[in-house]
Specification:
By secondary structure, this protein is an alpha+beta fold. It has twelve helices and twelve strands. The strands form three sheets. A five-stranded antiparallel sheet has the order 2-1-5-4-3, sandwiched between helices. The chain has a five-stranded mixed sheet with strand order 7-9-10-12-11, with helices on one face. A hairpin with a 5-residue loop joins strand 9 and strand 10. Helix 7 packs antiparallel against helix 8. The longest helix is centred in the N-terminal third of the chain and has 53 residues. The C terminus is likely disordered.
């Protein structure tokens, strides 16, 4: 009897022991997998931190919380090399980045607000300050995403001072090259008011020689003519000076139609001499963007010059010496109503299929030796992307179509950056 009871108890214990052993084995496997996953995570984190430490810039995670607070849960050690601050200092005072190190405080506030509102990438290029007060050029790129009530940006800041110096030199060279190419047209443009001015003076002299002292009304009329033509010449000279001057200006809010019209006027004589007509549909006072007006004018001068060269090259190829070329310039809101779209279209025969993908690469050119450096469109690409825009090239109709898209500024038009609180 007792033996039977013991057997029964042993069988019952064994029955319970089996599932317990199975659970223990399962949990042991789970622990091993978890330990392995933790080791892989630690190793991956260590590698990523090593990569981040060797990147010549700063990687960050920025969170705008639903309750209005701002935190930086991750900032790479590169912040010290860039700004002279430690990651701990940035985390302790999250406003350092947007309120103190940047030079254009108001501009950064507005761009971050737009990025948060529209969940669009944040791209800022501008002067920033280190802890010791020295300045450098930086480019910040961050992509926002929503997580519940929070907006999270993952981004990177790079020191582009050397790039900006090189870019400035290239832009300056491109400006001088444009001025050299347009010298004949500018000479003609200045010759007209000079001729009128000379005729007014000659008329006054002839009046004195033939009739004695000229009347006051006659002299006032001639003086008025001289003044008008001198003002016209002054305006042209000032425009040439502003265009050719090295551009160290801060980013500002501007109407893109104004530099577009300036560029069209600037190349007008060269286009007439080349028998090229510019048809423009560029309304003023409707849209605004943030950037550099003089650089935007340089972008337009380059695109118009390239279009003119393509038209002339087509004439030579097709032996059409006297045909009138056409360039269409259009400015309008993009389909998403959050960007503006600028189109420059020509009838110069288009871009060969194998060239389109290389068109914005530095030193790539299809022009004959001595006719182009291959830097014009690469400069255009750099200037457009530096203010958060994009540019594309394609064939359309009888020629090429270049399209620039820029973020539309929808906030206040106050451009007085110096009024911002720099403290």
């Amino acid at each position: 009897m007792r033996s039977g009871v013991r057997d029964l108890l042993n069988k019952s214990a064994l029955a319970r022991l089996g599932p317990a052993v199975e659970r223990e084995v399962h949990e042991a496997k789970a622990r091993r997998k978890r330990r392995h996953a933790e080791e892989v995570l630690r190793e991956t984190t260590s590698r990523l931190e090593g990569v981040a430490a060797n990147i010549p810039g700063m990687i960050f995670k920025r969170i705008q919380h639903g309750d209005g607070t701002l935190t930086y849960p991750y900032i790479s050690d590169g912040v010290f090399q860039l700004y002279g601050y430690t990651p701990q200092e940035f985390k302790a005072d999250p406003t350092l980045f947007s309120e103190h190190v940047v030079d254009d405080v108001d501009g950064v506030r507005k761009m971050l607000s737009e990025s948060e509102r529209l969940l669009q990438p944040y791209v800022y290029t501008g002067l920033e300050r280190r802890k010791d007060g020295t300045q450098f050029w930086a480019r910040t790129s961050a992509r926002p995403r929503r997580s519940a009530a929070d907006i999270i940006w993952d981004g990177i800041v790079l020191d582009i001072s050397d790039l900006k110096r090189a870019e400035s030199q290239l832009v300056q060279s491109a400006k001088l090259a444009s001025l050299g190419e347009m010298a004949a047209g500018l000479t003609h443009e200045l010759t007209q008011p000079l001729s009128v001015l000379t005729m007014a003076v000659d008329a006054a002299i002839m009046m004195e020689e033939e009739d004695g002292t000229p009347s006051v009304d006659f002299l006032m009329k001639q003086i008025h003519t001289i003044g008008e033509q001198a003002a016209r010449m002054r305006e042209m000279v000032d425009h040439i000076g502003a265009f050719s001057r090295k551009d160290d200006a801060k980013a500002e809010i501007f109407d893109p139609a104004i530099p577009i019209h300036n560029a069209i006027r600037f190349v007008a004589d060269l286009m007439r001499m080349s028998n090229v007509v510019i048809e423009e549909r560029v309304p003023e006072g409707i849209w605004h963007v943030r950037g550099y007006p003089v650089q935007f004018e340089q972008i337009m001068v380059n695109l118009l010059g390239n279009a003119k060269d393509a038209i002339i090259a087509r004439r030579i190829t097709e032996s059409e010496k006297v045909c009138t070329g056409r360039i269409a310039v259009r400015l309008e809101a993009d389909s998403d109503d959050q960007r503006i779209r600028l189109e420059v279209q020509d009838d110069g025969g288009g871009i060969p299929g194998d060239v389109v993908k290389h068109i914005f690469e530095p030193f790539f050119t299809t022009k004959p030796v001595g006719k182009g450096t291959g830097l014009g469109l690469s400069i255009v690409y750099s200037l457009v992307t530096s203010i958060g825009g994009e540019i594309t090239a394609e064939n359309d109709g009888e020629g090429a179509l270049f399209t620039i898209r820029l973020p539309m500024h929808t906030g206040p038009l106050d451009t007085d950056d110096d009024s911002a609180d720099r403290s």
